[in-house]
Write a structure and sequence with these properties.
- The structure is a homodimer.
- The first copy, chain A, is an alpha/beta fold.
- Chain A is built from ten helices and 16 strands.
- Chain A has two domains: 152 residues, Quinone Oxidoreductase, Chain A, domain 1 (Alpha-Beta Complex), CATH 3.90.180; 150 residues, NAD(P)-binding Rossmann-like Domain (Rossmann fold).
- Chain A is 26% helix and 26% strand.
- In chain A, strands 3, 5, 6, 7, 8, 15 and 16 form a seven-stranded mixed sheet that branches.
- In chain A, helix 3 links the parallel strand 9 and strand 10.
- The first copy, chain A, is globular and about 65 Å long.
- The first copy, chain A, starts with a strand and ends with a strand.
- The relative contact order of chain A is 0.15.
- Chains A and B meet through helix 8 and strand 14 of A and helix 8 and strand 14 of B.
- Chains A, B: One of its GO terms (molecular function) is oxidoreductase activity, acting on the CH-CH group of donors, NAD or NADP as acceptor.
- Chains A, B: It comes from Marinobacter zhejiangensis.
- Chains A, B: This is Enoyl reductase (ER) domain-containing protein.
């Protein structure tokens, strides 16, 4: 069995390019006792992976040069020496960026028996959806009376966050980077959408969209977005820091918002989180999300690239705003 | 009865100066039924007052041009038509920046029967001490195993915060702006003191002072201090934002720290607070602080200017680092 894999071959400064990656074909060895062969059917590309391209200590180890990268994927067991995962079993795994791999089963999770397309388990009902749900419900302690601002509202996490906040009864404002994305976000029922590329003064646009101020900011972007959110936040507002994509490809450190003192005077709370810390909440999350999906109350937004040959292009596209909803690679 | 008062006569941009203030003598009217005449004996000058010189909406109304300012003070009732506050009663009040005033009693609080100098009720066992205590125990949820970094450690709030954190069993690191202040902070039992003016790279100095990282940052300064703290914080660290004095006199907005993304990757919590929200905790605070003071476990650090003629000088001195501990004006 052959496996096509994407290796990291050099560390980017600033925006990564195809030159940082290499597509390699390897031959997998024969299965040992207890092992299974998994063929991945879908893989995820995520903004956080940009940070793993930097060689530094963080909450997750950096990718190693000359080695295959990893990340979320779903696949099917095609050969099995492990009764827990028979041939045909559909599994989620963290061995993305490759078409096939051998596992002893420890890093595999059987997909729940829910009538949903497999790739949803990488997105709306996978880590992406859990991230949105944790940020709103556990970090920001969402209440129905809150006005919620979601940056990158058309993104993988943002699009789910918007929908969850609407289902909680909140007034929701989203920011996006194109009119096409604005249409998509409006169609999800979001109350006001700002195209930050054409809005001019973002603080002013946000103030107009939320004349009574915002109570919760779901932070995906950083920079000017954070500055605007701080300016428009109400007293005791909560900021759930999911990521700051504006910083990821910066050549040099980007200055933070000039109005951080508002955290003091408005008595704000700004809290960062990493979804890994909340894996024990997955079942509780699925308990809410599965019915929402079944009833059509939440829709999965997806952008799909086909073939591992296009995985790098899909990944790079994240930083050019090429995705609407979850960016996926079909293998 | 005459009262000398400090009026705000113009709004500063950047560093305030004597020209923004005026000393005015007024004659107080005769007492009405229910009223008392209070002669202030001590008044407080505090960094937060700089923000009240700006005409904008905030948690506390701005000072009005051409009118007397206000702030914390303690005084003595010298004439009384109110049995609740007989002549000789010692009262704390928020009618500082003046030598005497008339009150109906609603804004007066009798000083507790504790054997402490009156001015301590403006400092270590007043709002200043409560601020330090709330920031550490309510906002940062201090634990004995924490390593705590206090900026402006020789300041009014900072010097109390350092001592409370030591009494909780924490390892404490303080930053100060002179070697003389460093000596004072060391004498309080703080484990490591950084003179940020001579330390060179603050992040490096902080890392050396806290080789195992910091868990709690008590933020009084902002700017470079916050950037260094973020860099050296441990996962799940907590930042209690009491103030950012570095920003108060800035002519133009100062950029925030370039490493705010660490709030996400280190899963930090940064929370602002204003002591007013915790007045209901004052008794609980006194219950801890009064015995500490009585037993000599906490010492009050004070810098005293004499006479209302020097109140503006005392206030301006706050921004030049002229105070060790609480800055007070004896009237």
């Amino acid at each position: 069995m052959k496996s096509k894999q994407i290796h990291l071959v050099s560390r980017p400064t600033g925006v990564p390019s195809q030159a940082n990656f290499n597509l390699v074909e390897v031959t997998l060895p024969d299965l040992q006792a207890g092992q299974v062969l998994v063929k991945n059917t879908w893989m995820s590309v995520d903004p956080y992976m940009r940070n793993r391209m930097i060689d530094r200590e963080s909450y997750i180890p950096p990718f190693q040069l000359g080695e295959v990268m990893d990340g979320g994927a779903v696949g099917e067991v095609v050969e099995s020496n492990n009764p827990q995962f028979p041939v045909g079993a559909r599994v989620s795994n963290i061995s993305g960026w490759r078409t096939a791999f051998i596992s002893n089963g420890e890093d595999l999770t059987q997909l729940p028996e829910v009538d949903l397309p497999d790739q949803h388990f990488l997105g709306v009902i996978g880590m992406t959806g859990l991230t949105a749900w944790v940020g709103l419900t556990k970090i920001a302690q969402l209440k129905p009376t809150d006005t919620v601002f979601v940056s990158a509202a058309s993104g993988a996490v943002g699009s789910v966050a918007c929908q969850i906040a609407k289902l909680y009864g909140c007034r929701v404002i989203g920011s996006v980077g194109s009119d096409e994305k604005a249409e998509m976000v409006k169609a999800m029922g979001v109350d006001a959408v700002i195209n930050y590329k054409t809005a001019g003064n973002l603080t002013q646009a946000l103030r107009e969209a939320a004349p009574e101020g915002i109570d919760v900011y779901f932070e995906n972007v950083g920079g000017e977005h954070l500055e605007a959110a701080l300016e428009v936040m109400n007293d005791y507002g909560r900021i759930a820091v999911c990521g700051m994509i504006a910083d990821y490809n910066a050549d040099s450190p980007q200055p933070g918002p000039a109005n951080l003192l508002l955290i003091n005077t408005k008595k704000l709370t700004m809290q960062g989180f990493i979804v890994m810390d909340y894996f024990d909440q997955y079942e509780a999350f699925v308990g809410q999300m599965a019915p929402w999906l079944a009833e059509g109350k939440v829709k999965s937004e997806e952008t799909v690239y086909e073939g591992i040959e296009h995985a790098v292009e899909a990944f790079l596209g994240l930083f050019e705003g090429r995705n609407k909803g979850k960016m996926l690679v079909k293998l």
